[in-house]
Design goal:
Elements: E1 3-4, E2 12-14, E3 17-18, H1 31-48, E4 74-75, E5 91-94, H2 107-118, E6 124-129, H3 132-138, E7 148-153, H4 161-167, E8 173-178, E9 195-199, H5 211-224, E10 228-232, H6 238-241, E11 244-245, E12 248-249, H7 269-273
Parallel strand pairs: 2-5, 5-6, 6-7, 7-8, 8-9, 9-10
Antiparallel strand pairs: 1-2, 3-4, 11-12
Length: 284
């Protein structure tokens, strides 16, 4: 079954690849690394009891003895066809626990992931990468059906080149995840961009996000007709900080193309997380 997600801009997660390597400042306090550490511990405990660890065992391959990414990835061939069995249409974040365009993911595996997505027109797949150069290089060789969205992370002005690389892909919807927002981006390039998500870092070592940085991006999106989604203020207690900006919640999303319904039908927060697993299994 699909793993329901508490991530505000999606509905479910699918992880045919797990594991990563940190490449820029936004990776410093990686939420997926913390989750992978927990899952590896769960797997070790299960195996120690003589029980099956299930897919949690995948994380034993990618976490080192210090509980950090070891820089490698694990390809879960058994997960490749999972979405084919999910009949109800949903929006799916691809590889919330990795990067599909990680240097160690071979093209043939990426192609197989795309073939699964091509075969599921009822779903919308959201791929997010910090390696859009590789995505652009692979792009002409992949089948970008309209249900495949492609995004890149832009945490500050030092990585703006990723946007130009994202534009080189053949995705019908291209989006930016400006999270964690670590500094002002007054001239965020929006040509060819269909959606912008902004959020602050959360967790025990969360870095500060300033109100003026968020307003700057929101106003630029508004001026350019680009949907703006404000995910969270973040901080040590992100629930208390909430996600309201200037008195309202910003849940703007792009319209799907072709035969797919409008993403504005995404369920509300309570409906989306109802029944979602609140344990480490959420992102397996």
């Amino acid at each position: 079954m699909a793993q329901l997600s508490r991530i505000e801009w999606t509905q479910a997660t699918w992880n045919p690849v797990v594991g990563c390597r940190k490449v820029s400042p936004g990776c410093a306090h990686c939420y997926a690394e913390r989750m992978a550490k927990r899952l590896a511990a769960i797997a070790r405990a299960a195996l120690g009891r003589g029980d099956s660890a299930g897919r949690a065992a995948n994380y034993l391959h990618v976490i080192n003895g210090r509980g950090r990414w070891n820089g490698t990835v694990f390809l879960d061939y058994a997960a490749l066809n999972d979405p084919l069995g999910w009949k109800l249409p949903r929006t799916i974040f691809v590889n919330s626990m990795s990067d599909l365009f990680h240097e160690e993911v071979p093209f043939d595996f990426v192609r197989r992931v795309f073939e699964t997505m091509n075969g599921c027109p009822q779903h919308t797949f959201q791929i997010l990468t910090k390696r859009p150069r590789i995505a652009a290089e692979f792009s002409p060789l992949l089948n970008w059906t309209p249900n495949i969205w492609m995004g890149t992370s832009v945490e500050d002005a030092s990585v703006l080149q990723r946007i130009a690389e994202l534009r080189r892909t053949h995705a019908s919807i291209k989006f930016l995840s400006v999270e964690p927002l670590l500094g002002p981006i007054p001239n965020l390039p929006l040509d060819g961009i269909d959606w912008v998500i902004v959020g602050g870092e959360s967790g025990p070592s969360a870095r500060l996000m300033r109100l003026e940085w968020v307003r700057q991006i929101r106003d630029r999106c508004s001026a350019n007709g680009v949907p703006f989604f404000f995910k969270q203020w973040g901080g040590v207690n992100k629930g208390r900080a909430g996600r309201r900006l200037d008195g309202r919640v910003w849940d703007e999303t792009p319209r799907r193309v072709g035969k797919h319904p409008d993403t504005r039908s995404l369920p509300s927060e309570p409906a989306r997380v109802q029944g979602a697993c609140a344990t480490a299994q959420e992102l397996v």
